[in-house]
Amino acid sequence: MFITPDDNKDGVVAKYGKVSVERFQGSYRIRWRFNGQGYAITVGKADTDTTLKVASAKAQEINSDILMERFDESLAKYSPKHAQALAPVQRVTKLNLADVWEHYKQAHVQRVAKTTQKKDWKEVERCLAKVSSEALDLDNPHLLLQELLEHYSSSTLKKAIANINAASNWSVETKLISDNPYHNLKKQLPKGQKSKRSKECFEPEEVKSIIQSFSSNEFCSPASAYSHSYYSGYVEFLALTGFRPEEAIALNWNDIKERNGRTVIVVSKAYSKGELKDTKTYNTRIFPCNDQLLSLLRRIPKRQNENNLVFPSVEGGYLNQYNFLNRQWRPVVIKLYQSGKISQYLPCYNLRHSLITRLIRDGYDPSTVAALVGNSPQVILDHYLAAKKDLTLPEL
Questions:
Q1: CATH number of the domain that 331 lies in?
Q2: 126, 158, 188: which is the final residue of a domain?
Q3: H helices then E strands: how many in the chain?
């Protein structure tokens, strides 16, 4: 069928099945794929209707031959002997998924955050290294999924497949490949069990116990090089604000401002895996300070450090969240659990869940809470709001 194009722009002008007629650099050419191989035939200058008719007729012939299983892979049947306007035949180099991914990376390396390249891109490369060469063929998306599921869970594969889909969409837009065979792959992932941790929180009294244990060095070993109380301000700040740890780590004193007679925190950046970057949602938000938070900020000592950080490491650089979680947070919270002061061990990130759940229970609507913590209302309900475990059913 014919497509109405811009007369002066390159692009598809007609399509018959999977065989396309394109305007390309002042000429008409025919492009298609067969058995994983890409082909292209140039048909003369795009300056007459006759050339377009010849190209369209040839495209219909090729499409018909593919459907009738009589396609001539040598292309002899579609050579200049059969159409005077036909130029020499050109075979397009066959690309597989690994090739598509490499082209995508090269084109986006300057535009994508280094943390994404280190984490998400590496995960895609690990996935591609696990599968056979047959699974990398663009004609075998189902085989790719089958082999990946032998090594990874559905939840692990979601982001990798999303990146593969993005790379393939870009490759279609840049005419590297004719279509995206992976556009429905994510929908075909088996439904996995949702993480229980993502919906759990500390109760308010438990949060207070955690803060108190850090500030008092209750479980700090005498042999420890650094006291737990050094991190008490950081822990209390996470509990009072629900900030993502990487947002609190990136916070500097210049982010705390006075606006219209009120103290606010401008949340515009995050520090993760050695890189300072945008927030997770790429949006800047304004967080209002209440009296309790203001009191905390006044108590935090302004330690000299190069980046004017509110919560610098002992050495003066950015705090290493991984080390904090394993060396300080885990020992303290596990001992609180063992002593019966809290009901369960949860990671530091769940202080965010705890604040969100407390605000919702106190009557704040999900839209307001979402704006405060940098999420959507649906994400709040799906992933953060914890169920109340000690509910007493009201009487009728």
A1: 1.10.443.10
A2: 188
A3: 16, 10
Per-position DSSP letters for 213-280, written without gaps between them: HHHHTTT--TT-SS-GGGGHHHHHHHHHH---HHHHHH-BGGGEEEETTEEEEEE--EEETTEEE--T
Q: Which domain holds residue 50?
A: 11-91
Are 205 and 337 members of one domain? yes
Residue 84 confidence (pLDDT): 38
The rounded mean pLDDT for the chain is 87
Residue at 232: amino acid letter: S
Pairwise CA distance, residues 303 & 178, whole Å: 57
Residue 87 is encoded by which pair of tokens? 């130029």
Between CA 212 and CA 226 the distance in angstroms is 17
- What CA–CA distance (Å, rounded) separates 64 from 323? 63
Percent of the chain at pLDDT > 70 equals 92
Strand segments, DSSP code E, in 268-336 are 270-272, 275-277, 285-288
Task: Name the nearest CA neighbour of 269 among 282, 259, 258, 256.
Answer: 282
Rounded-to-integer distance, Cα 245 and Cα 321, Å: 7
**149 and 213 co-located in one domain:** no
Contacts of 176 (CB under 8 A, 6+ apart): 95, 100, 103
The gap from C-alpha 125 to its chain's centroid, in whole angstroms, comes to 15
Question: Could you tell me whether strands 285-288 and 262-267 are parallel, antiparallel, or unpaired per DSSP bridges?
Answer: antiparallel
Confidence of residue 41 (pLDDT cuts 50, 70, 90): confident
109-150 pLDDT per residue, tens? 888 888 888 889 999 999 999 888 888 999 999 889 988 988
Q: In this structure, is residue 1 part of a structural domain?
A: no
Question: Which residue is listed with tokens 């300056």?
Answer: 47
pLDDT greater than 50 at residue 82: no
Q: How distant is the alpha carbon of residue 187 from its chain centre? A: 16
